[in-house]
From TrEMBL:
<dbReference type="Pfam" id="PF02682">
    <property type="entry name" value="CT_C_D"/>
</dbReference>
<dbReference type="InterPro" id="IPR029000">
    <property type="entry name" value="Cyclophilin-like_dom_sf"/>
</dbReference>
<keyword id="KW-0067">ATP-binding</keyword>
<dbReference type="GO" id="GO:0016787">
    <property type="term" value="F:hydrolase activity"/>
</dbReference>
<keyword id="KW-0547">Nucleotide-binding</keyword>
<dbReference type="InterPro" id="IPR003833">
    <property type="entry name" value="CT_C_D"/>
</dbReference>
<protein>
    <submittedName>
        <fullName>Allophanate hydrolase subunit 1</fullName>
    </submittedName>
</protein>
<keyword id="KW-0378">Hydrolase</keyword>
<dbReference type="InterPro" id="IPR010016">
    <property type="entry name" value="PxpB"/>
</dbReference>
<dbReference type="GO" id="GO:0005524">
    <property type="term" value="F:ATP binding"/>
</dbReference>
<feature type="domain" description="Carboxyltransferase">
    <location>
        <begin position="2"/>
        <end position="197"/>
    </location>
</feature>
Length: 231
């Protein structure tokens, strides 16, 4: 069900053994809320990820495995009684004109229109945020679209690129190297500048547990929404 391991003097990590990433994400969100209440004055930070929860305590004395194990066991003993944490639904406009759209069609045996319908017809769950600041791993990709990562990654993937790989979809919040298959572009930023943030506010637009749905748009819509041309 779970495995608890120390990783430093004042931190530990909980691994959730559920094979389904979306189920694991819900468990992790509820567990994080439970531990935050239980260790309110000692737990300084926690980082939910895909099937794991990193816990950071204020001192080694407060990061003891015995009381932590007891609190986690208590959570699982009453997991069915624990309410789900609130999640947000984001609708994200997407222009499906990616340079891998036709290669993906060849590999999957689907038409371009079928790929767009399958991809935009799903509601995805954010199961982790990482790799790049603001890069959300979106679980829930249709099985017909699941492909391994590209053998040779690109040296540069443009900012805002909408991509798929394995069981995930994602949007590159900034230009970077990458080995996912590019389906299109998103015209809106997914990370806010730190100068625009209030104290304690995250720059990432997506958080673990949030849901995301893509809405297919035209090239004119893309430009009207502030999308970059020539990327």
């Amino acid at each position: 069900m779970y495995k608890l391991e120390p990783i430093a003097a004042n931190s530990a990590i909980v691994y959730i053994t559920s094979p389904d990433p979306i189920t694991a994400t819900g468990v992790i969100q509820r567990l994080a809320a439970h531990l935050n209440r239980t260790f309110a004055n000692q737990l300084t930070d926690y980082v939910p990820a895909n099937r794991s929860l990193l816990l950071q305590f204020d001192s080694p004395q407060n990061c003891r495995l015995q009381p932590l194990n007891a609190a986690i066991s208590q959570f699982f003993d009453h997991a069915d009684e624990t309410p789900d944490t609130a999640s947000r639904l984001h609708e994200v406009p997407a222009l499906y004109d990616g340079e891998d759209l036709h290669p993906v069609a060849q590999q999957t045996g689907l038409s371009v229109n079928e790929i767009i319908e399958l991809h935009s017809g799903r509601v995805y769950t954010v199961v982790a945020v990482g790799f790049l600041p603001g890069f959300a791993y979106l679980s829930g990709l249709h099985k017909s679209l699941r492909l391994p990562r590209k053998i040779t990654p690109r040296a540069r993937v443009p900012q805002g690129s909408l991509a798929i790989a394995e069981e995930y979809s994602g949007v590159y919040p900034q230009a970077s190297p990458g080995g996912w298959h590019l389906l299109g572009r998103v015209p809106i930023p997914l990370v806010s500048p730190f100068t625009d943030l209030k104290p304690g506010e995250s720059p990432n637009h997506f958080a673990v547990g949030d849901q995301v749905k893509f809405r297919a748009i035209t090239g004119a819509d893309y430009v009207a929404l502030g999308g970059r041309c020539g990327e």
